[in-house]
Amino acid sequence: MSRSPAGRLSAFAATGLLAAAAFGAPPAAGGGTPDDGAGAGEARGEVVARAGAPLRQAPAATSPAPATAAHGERVSVLCAAEGERRSAWYLVRTDHYAWAAAGDIRVPGAAPPRC
Taking a C-beta distance cutoff of 8 angstroms, is the pair 75, 43 a contact? Predict the structure, then answer.
């Protein structure tokens, strides 16, 4: 079932607001180990983009990116979402919550759940 443009826009805006509200929030307590950086229910991912992965406030290439995860850095992947122009994004956790383009992050194993 496809959504209307208005439905996609409202879903995109709600997802962006969720990330904006969470951006800069401290990591969730418990779960995970210092070695893998992933909490309970989170997948472990690794930044594969040579220039690093811009960590954005919303799942859009035009969204501000106040931080960048370095190549090889491990990140916790909470879920996957569709952004502008059907682009794929992950909601990730490093020392902040942010959005990263799915192409910049390798997640071995099962795909992360949808947001």
Answer: no
Q: Looking at the domain assignment, is residue 113 inside a domain? A: no
Residue 111 falls within a domain, yes or no? no
Is residue 92 within 8 Å of 69, Cβ to Cβ?
yes
Number of domains in the chain: 1
> What whole-number distance in Å separates Cα of residue 46 and Cα of residue 106?
5
**Is 75 part of a structural domain of the chain?**
yes
69 touches 106 (CB < 8 A): no
Each residue's pLDDT tens digit, 17-71: 444 444 444 333 333 333 445 566 689 999 999 999 999 999 999 999 999 999 9
Q: Where are the beta strands (DSSP E) in 6-96?
A: 43-47, 53-55, 67-69, 74-82, 88-93
Q: Which residues contact 17 (CB under 8 A, 6 or more apart)?
A: none
Domain encompassing residue 55: 5-106
pTM comes to 0.69
How many angstroms separate the Cα of 30 from the Cα of each of 21, 26, 33, 34, 45? 21, 12, 9, 11, 18
